[in-house]
Design brief:
The complex is a heterodimer of chains A (313) and B (417).
Chain A lengths: L7 H4 L17 H31 L1 E4 L2 E5 L3 H8 L1 H33 L5 H13 L2 H12 L5 H6 L12 H26 L4 H9 L4 H29 L3 H6 L9 H11 L3 H32 L6
Antiparallel strand pairs in A: 1-2
Helix pairs in contact in A: 2-13, 3-13, 4-8, 4-10, 5-8, 6-8, 8-10, 10-13, 12-13
Chain B lengths: L5 H16 L15 E6 L8 H12 L5 E6 L3 H13 L7 E5 L3 H6 L10 H7 L2 H6 L1 E2 L2 E2 L1 E8 L1 E5 L10 H15 L2 E4 L6 H13 L16 H16 L12 H9 L3 E6 L2 H8 L6 E4 L11 E10 L6 H13 L1 H10 L7 H6 L4 H12 E3 L6 H16 L5 H17 L1
Helix pairs in contact in B: 2-13, 8-9, 9-17, 16-17
The chains are: A mainly alpha (313), B alpha/beta (417).
């Protein structure tokens, strides 16, 4: 939420306690601002907070399938934390997140640097790079299922691999899911990084070149430090999304061969074999994990925003 | 605030679904005195022009006072179940007649979503094949009226195989040798980790003589030795190339594609594939046979299909009950399923009249021997546990003996309650 633009003369000194110019109605500017923001805060709390709280309440109850049995205390959490399946899916989710976000960052950075250059056909290149991101994830997942699966086996045909069973064995199944995700979302990372790149003033590079800095030095000492906020935002978005991945593994492997993500597990207990208490406990656990990871990024980002000049999100 | 768990999106989906599936009971139904019955059923044949709609039209002609209309549910069985559950959990009267998959009977009965059909049991039992009838009961009580059935076939290439094999071992020997000569693959079924995998596994297990529960499903009758035999057969078939390489990621359609393109010698699949293969001029020459067993005697198949239940929250239980009994026992309606669609009927006498149709003739033989998966309330959990234990064992990633024992001990937890 960016502050409402104030007169340019004031913006040098950001809103401080000394600005308590009392209005006719008796509200200070600050109180008035809070009053105006209140409806949207309340709405957001209803939409975002209520389900979280409700899930937590559900998770304290015991169910036999859909029938409410009674209060369970923290039993559902104890069950989840001692269930090997929870740890297996957590492990896959973390492996998936770290590798896919890492690869997406490197490829996305490469794309962004290319898209930021001035060359003939730049418009077409930018559009082409963005195509995978535009395709809905379930469709991309189904597409990559057909590409990797033995039948019809497009990848095997193209590379002459015979009947290599990508989706039907440990390891390679994980690889295929991660590959599809990298293909799908690298453009998104590239887009965010490109926006960051375009805020870096060109004269910095010019003076660096005058001082004799080579391309690698310019990248390391100018581009990357100044791109930090954009990088953090991109990593935050991608990490949080990767941690709740559902559609790609669900469509490509159905969670077989150790590709069951936390969200698949939650979906199973909420929908397929309903046990609302246990399902809610699992989803609360994944919420806490995702919230924790998110907060780390947000705190890094917050510091960055105080130090840096960019307020671009 | 922008961090959300998957929970949130699930809630959003649930709300959307609830809105989307609140049916026209209120808006479309109040035409004078006669309120339309609503039949909540999904799948391809429930679409406009499909055979279920023709059955509904037939009923409407014969019973203009209590007309029925179809409330179309999604294609996927799991999603159909979820939509019905949303309505029934809220005790909504929007659905009068429910299309109930054979494996949901126990769950729906336990949730008290169904009106018991014990008072019309005699009428239905006399007309129905035993397998489908068993799938309509839970706890020795009739909960739904049988409507349509399903069973597995062995599809084989007549240009490569003279006589269909009668034992699993024979099938694999032939699959491997023919496949090697022809440079194609052997046998494909439903080997991906989903409900179909359990169906395929059970067909091996049952054909070895195994059972999951005793007659009235109060005790576990699981035989670990036969379970090991079935699992070992699958693991060997996987390792020695009897199964086509795509077996462990194949569902019905992947299997059909492989067979249709001439890439495999044998396939286990449902009857619907038959007409699709016949329509395709490029498809290889083929024929259908009963599934083999381990001993070579008889055949066994897992039973599929849908039954019709009467919602306990219906405003018009009597008319709904009349409809489900009619759909189970009316010869014209049941024949229509076979002739207008490729949906196997559940009424025994219909098969005598359809003896000329190769699919129906074979179904007539196979359905008599088909076994329902236990329609227990916890079937979904059992199925998931079986997938989790047996799938890695079949794929050579877990010890067979201990995996089969895990299935047994899970089954035991289901009867202790």
């Amino acid at each position: 939420m960016a502050d409402t633009p104030v007169a340019p003369a004031r913006s040098v000194e950001p809103a401080g306690p000394d600005q308590s110019s009392v209005r006719a109605g008796g509200f200070s500017e600050r109180t008035l601002a809070r009053l105006f923001i209140a409806p949207s805060i309340i709405l957001m709390a209803l939409v975002a907070l209520f389900p979280v709280v409700y899930a937590f309440i559900l998770s304290l109850n015991e169910y036999t399938r859909r029938q409410h049995v009674g209060f369970a205390g923290l039993q559902n959490y104890a069950d989840a934390l001692t269930d090997g399946r929870f740890w297996e899916s957590l492990r896959f989710t973390l492996v998936f997140t770290v590798t896919s976000v890492g690869a997406e960052f490197l490829i996305g950075l490469g794309f962004a640097l290319i898209m930021n250059q001035a060359f003939r056909g730049r418009g077409i290149t930018r559009a082409a790079i963005l195509i995978p991101w535009v395709i809905p994830t379930v469709i991309a997942a189904q597409m990559w299922f057909f590409m990797f699966n033995v039948t019809p086996g497009f990848i095997n045909n193209v590379f002459g691999l015979g009947n290599f069973n990508w989706l039907g064995q440990q390891g390679w199944a994980t690889f295929a899911v991660i590959f599809a995700d990298v293909w799908k979302t690298s453009p998104f990372v590239a887009l965010l990084l490109l926006a960051g790149l375009q805020t870096i003033p060109g004269d910095l590079y010019e003076s660096a070149m005058t001082d004799g800095a080579n391309a690698l030095q310019r990248l390391w000492y100018i581009t990357l430090p100044l791109l930090r906020p954009a990088i953090l935002v991109a990593l935050l978005f991608r990490t949080v999304e990767a941690l709740r991945v559902y559609d790609l593994p669900q469509v490509m492997t159905g969670g077989a061969f150790n590709t069951e993500s936390l969200s698949i597990l939650v979906q199973q207990y909420v929908v397929r074999t309903p046990n609302p208490g246990y399902g809610a406990a699992l989803s609360t656990l994944s919420f806490v994990i995702i919230l924790g990871v998110g907060l780390v990024f947000v705190s890094m980002l917050g510091r960055q925003l105080v130090i840096g000049r960019t307020t671009e999100r | 605030m922008r961090i959300r768990s998957a929970w949130l999106s699930l809630t959003a989906v649930a709300v959307l679904v609830a809105v989307a599936c609140t049916p026209g009971g209120d808006d479309g139904g109040d035409e004078g005195e006669t309120r339309q019955l609503v039949w909540a059923i999904g799948g391809a044949e429930a679409q406009p022009g499909g055979v279920h709609e023709q059955v509904a039209e037939l009923w409407n002609e014969q019973n203009p006072d209590t007309p029925i209309r179809i409330e179309l549910l999604p294609e996927e069985a799991d999603q159909q179940r979820e939509q019905q559950a949303l309505e029934l959990q809220a005790q909504g009267s929007g659905f009068d007649v429910l299309g109930v998959d054979v494996i949901w009977t126990g769950e729906y009965a336990e949730n008290e979503w169904l009106e018991s059909l014990e008072d019309v049991r005699g009428e239905i039992e006399g007309a129905t094949l035993p397998g489908p009838f068993e799938s309509a009961t839970w706890g020795d009580e009739l909960w739904v009226a049988p409507y349509n059935s399903n069973a597995g076939f062995l599809y084989y290439r007549t240009d490569l195989v003279d006589e269909p094999p009668t034992t699993w071992d024979e099938l694999c020997e032939e699959a491997i040798s023919v496949a090697e000569d022809e440079g194609i693959n052997g046998f494909i079924g439903q080997g991906a980790r989903y409900e179909g995998f359990v169906v395929n596994w059970l067909e091996y297990y049952w054909s070895a003589g195994g059972e999951l529960y005793n007659e009235d499903q109060t005790q576990v009758a699981f035989d670990t030795e036969l379970g090991v035999q079935a699992t070992e057969f699958m693991a060997d078939a996987m390792a020695d190339g009897c199964y086509a390489p795509g077996f462990n990621t194949a569902q019905e359609e992947e299997a059909r594609n492989e067979f249709q393109q001439g890439n495999v010698v044998f396939m286990r699949n449902w009857p619907y594939v038959h007409s699709l293969l016949e329509e395709d001029e490029e498809a290889p020459e083929f024929d259908i046979a009963p599934l083999p067993t381990f001993t070579g005697d008889g055949t066994i198949s897992a039973l599929g299909g849908f039954n019709n239940g009467v919602s306990a929250f219906s405003d018009n239980i009597d008319a709904a009950k009349e409809f489900v009994v009619w759909a189970a026992t009316n010869e014209e309606a049941q024949t229509m399923l076979a002739t207008e669609g490729s949906v196997p009927p559940t009424m025994a006498s219909v098969y005598d009249d359809l003896a000329d149709d190769p699919v129906m003739a074979l179904l007539g033989d196979v359905l008599g021997e088909a076994k329902p998966r236990p329609p227990a309330p916890e079937w979904n959990e059992i199925s998931v546990e079986m997938q989790r234990a047996l799938f890695p064992a079949v794929n050579g990633e877990a010890d067979i003996q201990s995996s089969v024992e895990a299935v047994r001990s899970h089954l035991e937890t289901t009867v202790e309650q």
